[in-house]
Amino acid sequence: MSEVVVTSLVKLQNEVRYGAAQHTFITDEPLSAGGEDAGPDPYTLLLAALGSCISMTVTLYARRKAWPLERVTVRLRQQRIHARDCVECQPKTDNYVHRIERGVAFEGALTDEQRTRLQEIAHKCPVHKTLTSEIVVAEWQD
What we know:
Layout: E1 4-8, E2 14-18, E3 23-27, H1 42-65, E4 69-82, E5 96-108, H2 112-122, H3 126-131
Antiparallel strand pairs: 1-2, 2-3, 4-5
Helix pairs in contact: 1-2
């Protein structure tokens, strides 16, 4: 199980600590949202987690298959839209949904079949599965 500790600093900045070596980084909001743009905002971190997982998952798969994958580039963007405007959403409601669009590109001397398979594998990364399943956020139990 992974653990992250977030501690508020100044204004909207937070220090994020994680891992056995206690790595740290700063999160913040952009200037337009009242922050100082000193680090990524929470939604950027969410997209980075998904993009990193996709890249790692397809890279590991290609390595196991000994395919000539040289680089993976994942582009992501997120927006909040009305559920009734969401083509993929069923059933239609008056609520909002968060829609993430993604594009995955591969570099290397791959066949069309290999590229197609890597696109399929990209949908199977653990973070993708987490985001598309039910998520329960519970109170911390010591």
